[in-house]
Amino acid sequence: MEPNMRRARNITWAAVFVISIAGVQRMQAQATFGTITGLVTDTSGGVIPQVNVSVVNQATGVERQAASDSRGNYEATHLNPGSYTIKVEATGFKRFENRDVRLQSQQTVRVDLQLEVGSLGSEVTVTAGAPVIETDAPTLSDVKSALQIRDLPLNTLNTFILNAFLFTTPTGYQTAGSKFAMGGARGTQLYYNIDGISANSPSFGVQNSPAEPSAESIAEMKFNLVNNRAEFGEVTTVTAITKSGQNELHGRLFEQNTTSALNARSFFATSKGQNIINDFGASVGGPIKRNKSFFFGTYEGFRQRVPAILTPSVPTLKMRGGDFSDLLAGSSPTVIPIR
After folding, report:
1. Which ranges in the chain belong to alpha helices (H)?
2. Are 181 and 206 part of one and the same domain?
3. What is the mean pLDDT of residues 309-327?
4. Are 155 and 112 in a shared domain?
């Protein structure tokens, strides 16, 4: 019997429009912002109070101001994930810059600043990333960047991507049904959120929401495993951060194609049949007003043509004539009681 061919078309739209205005903070269920903190000292180790510290997002140019307190501590809060430059200017000291400080979502990065005596006309520049160990928060976490997400060998670019990346995380595994677990927690003790907005099923602890972003729109995925902050109610938290526009215009086209030539035959089928998948789309982002507001959007289309393998039981010619003796043949005869 030839397989009954079925054509299924599903179009997945994923659109993210992000407008960021300097000085305006987003209100969310759980904040996804990060913090940069540290101590300002001179070369002898003495603290320097009342020093102006500027924290600048290298991609958007958005600047956040902070000042060291009487103990020399400074703190810049409510920062979006990204790479930052820290600038310090103080009378009697050389101008100081620390570039390429990488900040992840929900992360507190400590960057201590040491100023050298000199004129403001002189400058000391340090290029270094954030410390490998986060010393200001007692949590265990794992982060997948946009580059890692794009290069992972996934068989699709959409669907429930939050669950898909659990397998790439230490201690991540699938429990009963569609539930997943990490960090020794049960399958119902995971909390999923996208930009701080819940994408969680309160009954089953799985991703259950119409908010299913395309992998192309994800900037990073973060998994908090142990000692979560008080704002998170579950043992493990899975956070997806979507991309934002930058001062430079960026765009990307993508296509993922699956053909029958590389597929295996279904166990009950006599031939491989047709199974063609096209997952395609594009993304674009850039400035509306430099250093002030930005836009970013994605589109993803999904087309799939698959066969439906049907194995129905139909009566033979003898059965149509009223002869069911063949049911009694063989090692396991079929007995139909008549009452």
Report:
1. 146-151, 161-164, 317-320
2. yes
3. 81
4. no
